[in-house]
């Protein structure tokens, strides 16, 4: 198969020949029995998400491994890390292998299970980290995401334990007592609306503590969904010390602010904007963009969090927290980072493919598009514009914050080891 006239990382147009799932040749005027016209599209290495909620097992009404990986493929992803807060929790070798096998069967993208840090995400005793690492799923990323490992002794032990198999602890940084009953970012807007605030310090205090713990035991820490300017300063400081700390930001924290809770295209108090960590201020957004551009924040991760309609279309206080994001991530990153001149497409490939694959130790993903690499490729038309409608998504859930908004770019095709999972913008 030949992909014709595609601009690799936005460079000069070239043809890519794929054979046996691998990039066999890159050049001009290549011909073959099956040709795909890539004119107008750029080619990026298949995207890798370090933070996806697939909801299976347990909440198949919100998402399944099948619909979640279809959603991922439509967003240009060839691999996702599936978070452990399923029912049952992915805290044993048996559960992570079950999720890994579901991923293998459904095939729209690779599914790499994340293992829970503590049994049942309860924060009381360490889960079977070693057994999950040794299982067929070969777990390397461990997280209680949705909850914070707030006990410093447990966090220290987890960081020590994962060193044995080159694992990483991915922390959802949220000091629980400072955020009890929190509904949105603590600030001017929460004051006006009378909603209980989620203060920046509740995130920053945990990140500072965990950076110190990771340095103390010589282990690898990854910070999930960084949302505040202060967190960026702490991570910059830790990296400056040479400590092994990486961090992610979500697309929504790069684009949206807490003012949407008060006034938005879909009214005020619309729970579509309720998410954890919450949308912050425009000053935070600016700091997050700068941090992603200068490498303080390593990657973009979606925190794709599907919820059924009845859990979102309810009053603010009762609504579930989270947004879907796999199918809009690349467009939002283009809007926030590329069209603003902060990143070029090589920078996007590093932050949405190479670096997340490195952090998650996924050797088959995130490789540069060159001869010999697995043909994990996304073709993306950055000149397209799409008005977002929730029913266009492959995800089972509809909780997108971008409804009615026009976003740049469109995923034209996605290839997983040479096999098309998406063609002409549709599932193949
Ligand atoms: Zn989280």
Automatic annotation (TrEMBL):
Q: Tell me which EC number(s) this protein carries.
A: 3.5.2.3
The cofactor note reads: Binds 2 Zn(2+) ions per subunit.
Which amino acid positions bind Zn(2+) 1, per UniProt? 51, 53, 145, 303
Gene3D superfamilies cross-referenced by the UniProt entry: Metal-dependent hydrolases (3.20.20.140), Urease, subunit C, domain 1 (2.30.40.10)
GO cellular component terms?
cytoplasm
Annotated Dihydroorotase catalytic domain ranges read 41-229
Q: Which cofactor does it need?
A: Zn(2+)
Task: Specify which residues bind Zn(2+) 2 according to the UniProt entry for this protein.
Answer: 145, 172, 225
Task: Spell out the InterPro entries in the cross-references.
Answer: DHOase, DHOase/Allantoinase_Hydrolase, DHOase_cat, Dihydroorotase_CS, Metal-dep_hydrolase_composite, Metal_Hydrolase
Active-site residues, record numbering mapped to chain: 303
Q: What keywords are assigned to this protein?
A: Hydrolase, Metal-binding, Pyrimidine biosynthesis, Zinc
Residues that, per the record, bind substrate: 53-55, 85, 276, 307
Pathway(s) per entry: Pyrimidine metabolism; UMP biosynthesis via de novo pathway; (S)-dihydroorotate from bicarbonate: step 3/3
Q: Which domain of life is it from?
A: Bacteria
The alphabetized list of GO BP terms reads:
'de novo' UMP biosynthetic process; purine nucleobase catabolic process
Keyword Hydrolase applies: yes
Which reaction is the catalytic activity of this chain? Answer: (S)-dihydroorotate + H2O = N-carbamoyl-L-aspartate + H(+)
**Gene Ontology molecular function: any one:** dihydroorotase activity
Cross-referenced Pfam families: DHOase (PF12890)
Q: What does this protein do?
A: Catalyzes the reversible cyclization of carbamoyl aspartate to dihydroorotate.
Which family does the record assign? Belongs to the metallo-dependent hydrolases superfamily. DHOase family. Class I DHOase subfamily.
Query: What protein name does the entry list?
Result: Dihydroorotase
